[in-house]
Amino acid sequence: MSEETHPLADLTDAGLEALLRRAMRITLILGLVAALVLLIASGWRNAAMLAVGAAISAASILEWQRMVRLVNARLDRKQAPRGAVVVAIFFVLRLTVFAAVIYVSLKCFQGSLIALLCGLGLAVLAMAWEAIRLLRD
Fold first, then answer.
1. Between the CA atoms of 8, 95, 28 and 11, what dihedral angle is there, to the nearest 10 degrees?
2. Could you give the CA distance from residue 24 to residue 48 in angstroms, rounded to a whole number?
3. Residue closest to 122 by CA, chosen among 57, 65, 32
4. How far apart are CA 40 and CA 43, in angstroms?
5. Model confidence pLDDT, tens digit, residues 58-110
6. How high does pLDDT run on average in the chain?
7. What is the CA radius of gyration of the chain?
8. What per-residue confidence (pLDDT) applies to 44?
9. Is 27 within 8 Å of 57 (Cβ atoms)?
10. CA-CA distance, 93 to 61, in Å (whole number)?
């Protein structure tokens, strides 16, 4: 029986960076397409809610990408990237910022909560797609 290495074990820092970039792009594209479909099908309020959820999803992936860069620099015992403290602080505070954005969008747009949750789930969908793609190769 031959021992094959798991695809995740061969994942380099550059590969992870590329994976997160692709996931962010997928999230933004799916969010835009779904928002346009909702705009036509059920109005601007639901489209705006989905767009807010998709934007938060993409921003979350961006924050994870920054945090991965910071952690990898620490693990490789390299100089921490510029603004490491800012990245770490915003990573902790982002949940509060995103919660405020969600609250304001629910109050202002008065759209469907389901549309917002679908937009928020796009990051999970994109990351799952990229993970499956990585495992398949």
1. -10
2. 19
3. 57
4. 6
5. 999 998 888 888 777 777 776 655 666 776 687 778 888 899 999 999 999 99
6. 85
7. 18
8. 94
9. yes
10. 15
Alpha-carbon torsion 65, 68, 72, 74, what sign?
Answer: positive
Residues with Cβ within 8 Å of residue 81, at least 6 apart in sequence: 69, 70, 73, 87
**Dist. CA 130–CA 16, nearest whole Å:** 10
CA 127 from chain center: how many Å? 8
Contact 31, 53 (CB under 8 A): yes
Per-residue tokens: 9: 């074990």
Residue 111 identity (one-letter amino acid)? G
Q: Where are the alpha helices (DSSP H) in the chain?
A: 13-42, 44-75, 84-109, 113-136
Q: What is the spatial distance between Cα 111 and Cα 28, in angstroms, rounded to a whole number? A: 20
